Every structure is written in structure tokens, then in C-alpha cells.
């Protein structure tokens, strides 16, 4: 590690002001990705602005139509929240299987989305549910938020304040995880709304994406059989020492079918 300044922000405006004043400063949330990158000298911010103590970023509210979660809420608190479990069990179950216990205790919703790791779990829920990312200055639809590998629509000094998840009729998430990191080799989030089905895939490509062929099939028939009947092409999918593009393509409809079975109870 190397020397850097540390600031603890008391409100969102103060945090943004501190970042805007220093081009080399970074927001610090759970630090599960940033601190690891700093140890490897892949990131060398001059200042870390801690946003985890900002009250407005720590709140959770649930009604019949929307689950709103503050950006600094950790994964473990999402998983254990009874109102979320009742209104949006698919999201609570996803949060319960992110990383390990230590990661879930420190990692945050906002930090995960801002980092946009290709194999992270939360992006699948945000895109699959058609959520809205609320920042200190605007509202960004999920379909416009994720731009590419580790790339989002956020400006350098823009802070995620909360995420608003619409409550679907049914939803569920299934992933084939790396046994060491618990990241998703491939993960599929399925959400059924009155207007149709949304399906988001993480871990299989440079960034999370919607599987439109599965959406069409499941809107017509929300069954595991309909999901398994879909063929996904391997073009553009990731290949590495863990899995080939073809294997990831095979996993997508299989995991979608399992998610549908889980959603149907």
C-alpha cells in the first residue's frame, strides 16, 4: 500500500464536492474491489472519500410497488431484510450468495454497481428488474447505465445515492459460481411483470446484458421448458481458464430454467 488521504463524508453533497476538487480522488464504499486494486497498484487514488456513514445512503424502504435501497447498504443487510424478503425475494436471495460472509458484511450495492465487474451479481438484478439508479444529480434507467466492462454512465464525480427496484410478479436468480471467488461464471436473473419478462445475464460477457430470446420465450410461456428450448449463441461471450464461450452459452438457458422453477415456487 502507499500513502493517501482519507476523508469521511457527512452528506452526499460534501462527498461529491471533495471528489470534484481532486481528479485523483475516489469514493470509498465497501472497498472490496478498490482496496484490492490499490494493493496491486492497479489504482492509486490520492484521496479516499468514505461514503459509508452518510445517513441517506443507508436507508431501505419497501412498498407494494418499489423497493428502494440506499447505495451504502451492505449485501448482508439486503439479504436479511424481512420486507425485501417478502416483496422481492429474488433480490434478497441474490444478495445472500454474493462472495463470502466477509464480503457480504462490507460490500455495498452502490459500490458493486459503480465498479460494474463483468461477473458481479447485482448488475443482473438491476438490469433484470429494470431498476432506476438514483445519483446525486439524476435518475438513470438500468438499460442506460451499464456501458461495457467496468464502464457505466456515471460521471467521475457522480455518486450513486440509491437504487429503486420495481416489484415484479415473480423473480429469481441462479448462477454457476466460481468455487474460489463465488463470482458468477454465468448468472441469470429472471423477472416476470404484467407487461412481460425481463432476463439479464452476468458473468458471460464483458458486461451484463439482456437475453432477448429468453425474454420472448418466457413472455409467451413462463416455464422451465420454454427457457431450456432457447439456444444462445457463443459469439461475444467470455472465454477463460474457467469456461469457454460455448459452455457459457450452454449455461444461460439452463440457469434461466432453474430461475423460472425457483420463481414459480
Automatic annotation (TrEMBL):
SUPFAM superfamilies: CO dehydrogenase flavoprotein C-terminal domain-like, FAD-binding/transporter-associated domain-like. Keywords: FAD, Flavoprotein, Oxidoreductase. InterPro entries: CO_DH_flav_C, CO_DH_flav_C_dom_sf, Diverse_Substr_Oxidored, FAD-bd_PCMH, FAD-bd_PCMH-like_sf, FAD-bd_PCMH_sub1, FAD-bd_PCMH_sub2, Mopterin_DH_FAD-bd. It comes from the Bacteria. GO terms for molecular function: FAD binding; oxidoreductase activity. Residues 1-170 form the FAD-binding PCMH-type domain. The keyword Flavoprotein applies. Pfam families: FAD_binding_5 (PF00941). Gene3D superfamilies: 3.30.465.10, CO dehydrogenase flavoprotein, C-terminal domain, Uridine Diphospho-n-acetylenolpyruvylglucosamine Reductase, domain 2. PANTHER family: XANTHINE DEHYDROGENASE SUBUNIT C-RELATED (PTHR42659). This is Carbon-monoxide dehydrogenase medium subunit. It comes from Paraburkholderia tropica.
